[in-house]
Amino acid sequence: MGSIAVAADLVLRPATLDDAAFAADLWTAIYPDSPEDPVLTRYWWEHPHDDGVWERHVALLGGRPVGFAAQGHPRWEDMPERWGRTQADLLPEARTAERHDALLAFAEARSAADGARRATLWAWETDPFKLASAQRRGFREERRERFWELDLVAHRDRLLREAEATRARLREQGIRILTLAEDGDPARYDKLWRLAEEASRDEPRTVPWTPTPFSAFRSWLRNPGIREDRAWIARSGDGIVGISLLAYPPVRGIVVTEWTGTARSMRGRGVARALKYETVAQATLLGVDRVRTDNDFQNKPILHLNEAMGYEPRPEAIQLVKELAP
Ligand SMILES: CC(C)(COP(=O)(O)OP(=O)(O)OC[C@H]1O[C@@H](n2cnc3c(N)ncnc32)[C@H](O)[C@@H]1OP(=O)(O)O)[C@@H](O)C(=O)NCCC(=O)NCCS
Question: Whose CA is nearest to atom 9 of ligand 1?
Fold first, then answer.
């Protein structure tokens, strides 16, 4: 999708899958403290989380790639409110206000042309340049994603001890914890998908929840950061009642919680706590020195758990929103 365009002194050409490595390098150059994995970036371009639509452009300066603009959205039939996603970024040496504003304006225009009525944009709170550009374009802060890091070296003994205690608490309630690789139930993926569809609805959000087709769920679980012998699930009787897993970036980046969710009927019984501890204990024993996790700033149970486990807060990401002209 997309065609050649111009934004300020940049030429924009449609991106191909081979540009995913450039996009990952670009984000890593702007935010070296949060390296992006090129293999994972390419995978997500090929297999969007929610099976949504994306249109991406690479920005060239004198023929050299220096920036990136994109817009995307869930399938509109799943979201009558028509929230679009926009992205605009430039390499540090190419960052000027004029170029950034033009790149963002381009992404917004493509989003509106694709039928979006509102746009979202993410920016780190530590990036005043990007936030200023967003503000000039009429975006305003809507909500925040809180980021955390846990030092597995400093807290090794405590974490392993507490993992054992949380495991025991579940055993007493007849809830089993095992890895997905250890689970022989032929219906396990279908059960996990239903659990994820139930739990993901409960995350606080501004942009309405949309369903994930089973095929997209399977692609998510097959992403190159995931291993089934490192994906932890909880079982109660015949049902799967929880999942928590870390993503291990194959090329570069920090090991991070991919997702945690539990069945509504099981909340408050320590299932998420035990699963999260299990992932962290496994990473500790594998020699990982630190893990990260993130959650919406209003997600009280998971905020409480992350604090209780000893995660230290990191800079937050801000979700900005804007009404697009009809
Ligand atoms: C977040 C979630 C995984 C927690 O699952 P859970 O199995 O209920 O979690 P646990 O029982 O292990 O622990 C929840 C803790 O939060 C606490 N809690 C619950 N509601 C709370 C609130 N409103 N304010 C403060 N603490 C709260 C509980 O008391 C418990 O702490 P405790 O063990 O110290 O008493 C579950 O609510 C869920 O699936 N939510 C939707 C998906 C989601 O948001 N996932 C996280 C994405 S980052």
Answer: 272
Calculate how far, in angstroms, residue 299's C-alpha sits from the geometric centre of ligand 1.
8
- Residue 135: count other Cβ atoms within 10 Å of its Cβ: 14
Please count the CA atoms within 13 angstroms of the CA of 182 that sit on its side-chain side: 11
Per-residue confidence at 174, pLDDT binned at 50, 70, 90? Answer: very high
- Nearest atom in ligand 1 to the alpha carbon of residue 242 is 7
CA of 259 to the centre of ligand 1 (A): 13
DSSP summary character for residue 11: E
φ/ψ of residue 44, rounded to 5 = -70, -30
Q: Is the pLDDT of residue 326 over 90?
A: no
So where are the chain's domains? 5-138, 149-314
Same fold, 5-138 and 149-314: yes
Give the span between the Cα atoms of 147 and 245, in whole angstroms.
16
Query: Which residue type sits at 55?
Result: E
| Homologous superfamily of the 149-314 domain (CATH) | Gcn5-related N-acetyltransferase (GNAT) (3.40.630.30)
By the 8 A CB rule, do 20 and 38 touch?
yes
Q: Which fold has domain 5-138?
A: Aminopeptidase (3.40.630)
Residues 224, 250 contacting (CB under 8 angstroms) = yes
pTM of the model: 0.97
Q: How far is the CA of 272 from the centre of ligand 1 (A)?
A: 7
Question: Is the pLDDT assigned to residue 2 strictly greater than 70?
Answer: no
For residue 67, count CB atoms less than 10 angstroms from its CB and return exposed for 0-12, middle for 13-18, buried for 19 or more: buried
Half-sphere exposure of 28 (CA within 13 A, CB side): 15
With the most atoms of ligand 1 within 8 angstroms of its CB, the residue from 148, 166, 201, 267 to mutate is 267
1 has pLDDT over 70: no
